[in-house]
Structures are given as C-alpha cells and as structure tokens.
C-alpha cells in the first residue's frame, strides 16, 4: 500500500503596497528554475509584480546579459539577480537628505537628459528628477561640456544639485580641464558662504514640468493682476501670481 502524498502548505508572497508603515525592507525570492525557459520567464513576471529586490536562483535556463544585474557562478549553475539598484540608491539618498539644509547632492548618476546637455533623455533621468523633486533641489550643471569621455563616446552624467537657498550662493560651476587620469572630468564650483541667501534663479525641481497643463497655466496668468505700486511690492505680487499659477497647473 502506497502512502498518500503529504499535503504541502504553499505560502503566498505578502503583497507589496505603496504605503508601508514599517521600515523599508529588501524582498528576496529563491527558486530552482530546473533549466526551464518558461520558469525563468515566470520568474521575471513575479519579480515585476511582487517588487522583488533580489532573486537567488539555481539551475537557470540561461544567464542574462546587461543591462540586467545578473551575477552567475563559474559553472552557470547558480546566480543572483539584483533588481532596482538605482531606485534603491535614490530612496536612500532622499530619505537621508529630507529636511536637511543646506544640501549638496552630487555624483555620477549615469542618467541622460537634454536638461543637462545630453543628446537624448532616458528613463533613468526621469526617475532621478522625480526622486529629487520633494527636496526642491536645484540643478547646478550649465552648458553641455561632457563630464565623461570613453572609447564609445562622451556624455554628461556627473551632476550637481543643491538646496534652493544654497543654489543662490553658488557663484560658478564648471567642468574642469584638470588632468584626472580618469575617464571622468572633475567639476569645480564655488559657494559664497558669507552672502545672505536669496531666491534661487536657476531651474528648480519644485514642480514636475512633465505634468504641466498649459491651458490652465495660460488661464491663470491671463487673470493675474498686479496693481501699480512700489517696484519691490509689484515684484513680490507678480511672483505670488506666478507661484499660484504653477501650483494650479503642475504637480510637485
């Protein structure tokens, strides 16, 4: 007489929601793929739907090529698949920077955008700007001088952001011609530390320009009225009208 097959309880992955009261967690999945293409395809789907950060797999169907972050052993019998490293990095930066002033955020973000001199805009740049928007950070980059030059070309990927009040004290920003013995150029900028802060005149990330409702902005500005008076008072009222129009026509 054969023993009945034991009943195995298969737990369901906990759902991952946008709002979480608990601390940020790393979600990990492990799976033997049994050299099966369908299993590897289903794993990709599960990673997207369940927002998995790291997959630990063995007996994979094949190793994935860049841009996937896929780290396999020498015999291709096991691998670690890392997800969302850039988004996780931005989350750590913004959480640590929140509420801190003055603030400088700088580095090689490997993000392309025409806003800082690249030939095209890619999704990584959109992700970067969306992440920094709540910080009201100001992009200090000016011009389109490449910050990176390699065998396959050049690009502007080294970026500098500052809090809006500190940006008004930046007197210069430039890609230096100093020899660095690196494929990246140095960036040099100066901050006037004794100068009282004034409203930033550079482009700010306070509003999300991609959400602009042009009809709403036009209507709001058409109805704006600044009564005659002292120059400074008129300028203050005009800025208030512009701010109200931007608040009504764009998200932050």
From TrEMBL:
InterPro entries assigned to the protein according to its UniProt record, in alphabetical order: Endo/exonu/phosph_ase_sf, Endo/exonuclease/phosphatase
Coiled-coil region: none
Example of a GO MF term: catalytic activity
Residue ranges of every copy of the Endonuclease/exonuclease/phosphatase domain listed in the record: 86-187
CDD domains (alphabetical): R1-I-EN
Cited Pfam families: Exo_endo_phos_2 (PF14529)
Listed name of the protein: Endonuclease/exonuclease/phosphatase domain-containing protein
Organism: Trichogramma brassicae
């Amino acid at each position: 007489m054969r023993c009945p097959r034991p009943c195995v309880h298969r737990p369901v992955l906990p759902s991952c929601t946008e709002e979480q009261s608990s601390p940020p967690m790393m979600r990990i999945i492990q799976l033997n793929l049994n050299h099966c293409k369908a299993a590897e395809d289903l794993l990709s789907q599960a990673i997207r739907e369940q927002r998995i950060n790291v997959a630990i797999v063995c007996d994979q169907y094949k190793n994935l090529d860049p841009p996937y972050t896929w780290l396999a052993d020498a015999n291709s019998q096991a691998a670690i698949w890392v997800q969302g490293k850039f988004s996780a990095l931005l989350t750590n930066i913004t959480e640590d920077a929140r509420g801190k002033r003055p603030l400088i955020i700088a580095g090689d973000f490997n993000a392309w955008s025409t806003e800082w001199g690249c030939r095209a805009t890619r999704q990584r740049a959109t992700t970067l700007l969306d992440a920094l928007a709540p910080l009201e950070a100001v992009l200090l980059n000016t011009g389109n001088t490449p910050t990176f030059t390699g065998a396959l070309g050049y690009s502007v990927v080294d970026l500098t952001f500052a809090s809006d009040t500190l940006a008004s004290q930046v007197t210069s920003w430039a890609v230096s011609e100093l020899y660095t013995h690196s494929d990246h150029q140095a960036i040099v900028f100066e901050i006037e530390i004794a100068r009282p802060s004034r409203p930033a005149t550079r482009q700010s990330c306070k509003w999300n320009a991609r959400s602009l409702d042009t009809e709403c902005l036009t209507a709001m500005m058409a109805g704006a009225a600044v009564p005659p008076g002292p120059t400074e008072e008129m300028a203050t009222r005009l800025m208030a009208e512009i701010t109200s129009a931007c608040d009504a026509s764009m998200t932050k």
